[in-house]
Write a structure and sequence with these properties.
Structural class: alpha/beta
Number of strands: 13
Radius of gyration: 25 Å
Low-confidence stretches: 500-507
Strand content: 5-15%
């Protein structure tokens, strides 16, 4: 889910121009906190794109939020006393004789410990029982496809329908590409990478049979890619007291992650399904000190649920960039399976540059687009005070995007006056997204709460990461002294004016210079950007102005 979070932000900065992307969130833990967070992020993205009577908006080119995104939310239904353990599932089987049931129980006992694995709560995913997770994920997908096709009314009806809608879209697409974000070191779903293509194929076939149709998924036409994300974080091991509680005997232990990763990589390199179906597998890991997740004060390890909401990490951004690589490869490059990896420059710590994430051809494009969005965020959140999110009910919050509208008005730039489809609610959606991207705080005196990019920056610790450290400095941000025109390590792309002795002038110089650039005809030329609504033109205008200031060709 955190890899997906990074992927959505790549869409927001404009890396997927003129693309339509269908996203299926797939989890064994319906209430997972990171799942909830990324789904809120996607909902916000879709709300920003919505316009001209189109639910998902339209794809744009060379602007922010350029991709059209459609989301399908799915989670396996293993809640309730009759479904929340493997033992209860096996006992709920109908249509079998007593002898068949006894044989099934004997078979299960051969592979799954009766008093621990068959008893833990399946609604939480972090148990390190990947074989069980794969089986349950596969059968849940087929069960949902069957229920949806037959019109069965279950409490998981919305989830079933979302899954079926995604599968119908997949089967109707010519030469589709599917990228799976997967880790291979701990969670119950960690070994789902090999079974997801098979589950999709069998579910599509089942849906077609029920409806007497002929839809199918041909592995010779559909191309699958995946991230093989090895261990990069750790957490406090489970105490013996927790493991002695009924249903808590089996819990993931981070001390086993390296061994789990080694075993999984060996499996993937030989598994015939993987070798037949997947065309790219991206090996991604973190050789430095593992990031610590979880609260050390907690008595128990959190195996799932709402509390499992951890900060983002740079390796998750690398996974998102792997997906970008996969989606932008030529068809001719996807004829056979290849394992990919990339090693950034390392001198005691990493020296991350754009090409480390996107390769030599797209490295500068990525750095400039991400930098433009960061500068946009600083203007809205710091200069126009949009970071103030107020209380939980939204009272006391500030809409910094309205400050940007005033900035245009002050510079005699017309066309962005409020109207029916460009109002406070529309501008507030953009403001909220920027908070999730960068930072927010409840009041001007409260501590800054890190959004996605600031969490990623925090994860690299002493390593160099794309931009100057001053671009992430809390006191500069809160005192409105962060300079949106002086964020790049390479001064070629900075647009703050320098003094005679190389000293940066005041923050307002970058701000004033941007106002002059925004008034230029080139910044207001939207030809080729496929924008039509006021909101789209507003975002394109800001994108144009900042990228021109950064000496980056529009």
């Amino acid at each position: 889910m955190r890899c997906l979070e990074s992927f959505i932000h790549l869409c927001a900065i404009g890396m997927f121009d003129n693309k339509v992307i269908n996203i299926l969130t797939l989890d064994t833990d319906m209430g997972n906190g990171n799942k909830e967070r990324v789904e809120q992020l996607v909902d916000n993205y879709i709300a920003i794109k919505r316009g001209n009577g189109k639910e998902y908006g339209q794809p744009n080119i060379n602007t922010f939020f350029s991709a059209q995104i459609r989301m399908y939310k799915y989670a396996t239904d293993y809640n309730g006393d009759s479904r929340n353990t493997y033992k209860s599932l096996s006992q709920a089987t109908t249509g079998l004789s007593q002898e068949d049931k006894e044989q099934n129980e004997d078979l299960a006992d051969l592979f799954l410990d009766r008093d621990s694995v068959q008893e833990f709560n399946l609604s939480h995913g972090y148990r390190a029982q990947t074989h069980l997770g794969s089986m349950l994920m596969y059968h849940s997908i087929l069960e949902s496809a069957k229920n949806c096709s037959l019109g069965n009314k279950t409490k998981n009806k919305n989830q079933d329908e979302a899954l079926c809608a995604f599968l119908e879209e997949l089967s109707a697409t010519n030469n589709p590409r599917v990228f799976v974000f997967g880790s291979i070191f701990g969670g119950t779903g960690a070994s789902s990478i090999p079974i997801i293509p098979v589950a999709f194929r069998d579910a599509i076939r089942l849906m077609a049979q029920i409806k007497e149709g002929s839809a199918s998924l041909d592995f010779n036409e559909v191309r699958f890619g995946a991230s093989l994300l090895t261990d990069y974080f750790t957490f406090k091991g489970p105490k013996q007291e927790q493991k002695q509680q009924k249903g808590e005997e089996v819990i993931a232990d981070s001390s086993n992650f390296a061994l789990n990763s080694q075993a999984a990589l060996d499996f993937y390199s030989k598994d015939p399904t993987v070798r037949q179906v997947y065309k790219r597998l991206y090996n991604i890991g973190w050789p430095l000190i593992a990031t610590k997740y979880g609260n050390e004060k907690d008595d128990n390890v959190q195996t799932g649920g709402h509390s499992q909401k951890n900060d983002c990490h740079v390796v998750e951004l690398m996974c998102a960039c792997a997906a970008y690589d996969f989606f932008t490869l030529d068809d001719a490059d996807l004829k056979e399976l290849k394992f990919n990896y990339r090693s950034p420059q390392f001198e005691q710590n990493y020296l991350f540059t754009g090409k480390d994430f996107m390769g030599a051809k797209k490295g500068d494009v990525f750095t400039n687009k991400l930098g433009a969005f960061l500068s946009f965020s600083h203007l809205v959140l710091s200069h126009f005070n949009g970071a103030v999110a107020g209380s939980a009910n939204g009272s006391g919050s500030t809409n910094g995007v309205k400050g940007f509208m005033q900035f245009f008005k002050d510079n005699d730039i017309k066309g962005y006056e409020p109207n029916q489809e460009w109002n406070d609610a529309e501008t507030d959606q953009i403001n909220k997204y920027l908070r999730m991207f960068a930072y927010e705080y409840e009041t001007s005196s409260a501590e800054l709460q890190k959004g996605w990019l600031f969490q990623v920056y925090n994860s690299v610790e002493q390593s160099q990461f794309l931009f100057k450290s001053t671009a992430f400095q809390q006191d500069l941000i809160k005192n409105k002294k962060v300079d949106e025109g002086d964020i790049f390590l390479d001064d070629l792309h900075n647009w703050c004016e320098k003094g005679m002795f190389g000293n940066g002038k005041s923050h307002s110089n970058s701000y004033d210079l941007l106002g002059k650039i925004m008034k230029k005809e080139r910044a207001m030329d939207f030809s080729g950007q496929c924008v039509s609504t006021t909101k789209e033109k507003f975002l394109a205008h800001i994108y144009n102005g900042i990228t021109i200031a950064q000496k980056y060709n529009k």
